[in-house]
Design goal:
Helix content: 25-40%
Shape: globular
Strand content: 25-35%
Number of strands: 35
Radius of gyration: 26 Å
Oligomer: single chain
Number of helices: 16
Structural class: alpha+beta
Distance between the termini: 59 Å
Length: 700
Amino acid sequence: MSSDIGKRIRVGVDVGGTFTDFVLVDEKRDLIFTGKRLTTPEDPSLAITDGLERLVSESGTSVPELDAVVHGTTLVANTIIERKGAKVGLITTKGFRDSLEMGREIRYDLYDLFFEKPEPLAPRFLRQPVDERIDAKGNVLRPLDENTLGAAAEKLVAEGVEAIAICFMHAYANDAHERQAKEILDAKYPDMPITTSTEVAPEIREYERANTACANAYVLPLMQRYLGDLSQKLSDQGLKQPLYLMQSGGGIASVTRGQAAPIHLIESGPAAGATAGAFYGRLTGTEQVISFDMGGTTAKMCLIEEYEPEHAHEFEAGRVRRFKKGSGLPLKVPVIDLIEIGAGGGSLARVDNMGLLKVGPDSAGSEPGPVCYGLGGTQPAVTDADLLLGYLSPEYFLGGEMDLDLGLVKDAVEEKLANVTGLSVEEVAAGIHSIVNENMASATRMYIAEKGRDPRRYALVASGGAGPVHAYGMAKLLKISRVICPLGAGVLSALGFLVAAPGTDSVRSYVSRLENLDWDRLNRLFREMEEEAMAQIVEAGADPATVTMRRRADMRYSGQGFEIDVPVPDGEMDGSAADVMRQSFLDKYQELFGRQIDDLPIEALTWRIYASGPTPNVELNFAGQQIDEEPSDKGERQVYFPETGYATCKIYNRYALKPGDSFRGPAVIEERESTAVAGPDTTVSIDKYLNLVIDIDPPA
């Protein structure tokens, strides 16, 4: 028994638009178990509890034996995109009622005659001004008028608001009025969820801060209910340990934190895929990785350098034009910097008014799902095309648990698409597959080009149920020569929850030129942030002795409109630290823009702390990973490749392949949660971690 001390049994649960994925890591037996269920959109917790019950049964354990459940969800993002959140009222400084409407006063497309702006989450009649004013240095110019505050709140309550956001001018410099207003309203309306801007985004820039406060209030009632209900259901199942949540920045947080600031969960599911990609990069010694996570509804791509995903401090939610930067609601939340597009196995194909074949971004989801599921779907989707092209087996989808109906798919493609375009069923299927690959590759090219990087220097780590099916085609388009498909790639996001370290961010704005910094104030600011971050990360289960803190600052040349993120020295700082920060800024500016200006003053606006615990050590021993008594060769079938058309292709049993095995493509390699496709110009090998490594031949 002593050998089990400190070893845990943990479960990761990723709720996607089509499937809910499960991974159980049993450190006591060094085994990993996986599972996958169709998502239940009317109540995501149903798929979670049913899938968890089955997973623990298959693993020979029980819910009371679990040491932790880590959960990620797209519920916050979907609520904002679909505009299904609470009726939100905003209380703001007199004279600034329309800041949400005015925004940045920048058109995201100068030449679009049908330019459309995102509607504020709090419409004008639900925005109420209050008499108060604090200046940019934090000085009180006018005290908070409690009478106008009370009148404003009464108007909002009379309108039936379900949550209230408070955002006062320059509260990032002094949050006294926001705290005072919340105390008053909490006493008067104890059942009303209230968010202050400085609770979720204590940063400079009023429009973004107000948006973030409104967005948090918008999802607050829903997420409080959802997380409360889920925690109760897991407790009723016998879970004795806390439920934890993946945050958008890649760290793990407590349910308490998630219920207070659910807007920090907006990218929790996608963040897990990037975290898992970084884990496999480190595992295989591949420093430069593009993580590619393609599920049933969306595809996510993230750039990983030296085993660390790129991070950002702002995120756009609910874009009016999905691929137009600036067309959404800007939120001040820390996120893993990735690109996400509407391209998944459920993405629907259609013919537009010009007779052209289009794919996505709308998805069949889990209900009714693609046509091949036989659950009522009538519009062909990407999964249907993949089935027609021979990439998927009708008998071995989800390991044979779910039969796919090839006849239904042929009829639907012929009726909805082939007859309209004049193409054959097979040509339409090849077109769908090619279009979705090009959509993802185009988005990835733009994302990487904005960072000044070359995709040819990277390896592609494929995950998600559809990721390994499309990774080869996407890699060819990006001229990437190596694709890595981990075992269990179909549920890799759920594994990402379990290889992510507990982590949290703390942020404060203090604007000053480097030569004018008040070092006592800055050191005090960092101490406060470190105390706040430590409290949150300990609540998330970290040992204080193992926590590390990283400091960053948003800096710019004085007079510029936007900042870049640079490191800040640790410990107590004095004037000598200014020289270090200045050089860090110049180096980063040179890297990003290819130049630096030595004689311009530099200023810092926002200071950040990222606290993290140690990364969990997970041994990659999947239950059933090697079935020696079964052959790796599963026979042959006709599979389509652009170079050959339909051709005879060997099919392999993923679980019978061993380290050191190698073979030439074309090949289809099947496992329970996903299928990997390798073209005729590839060499496929199995490394010591049972990763499927697809090396693409250089062009002739």
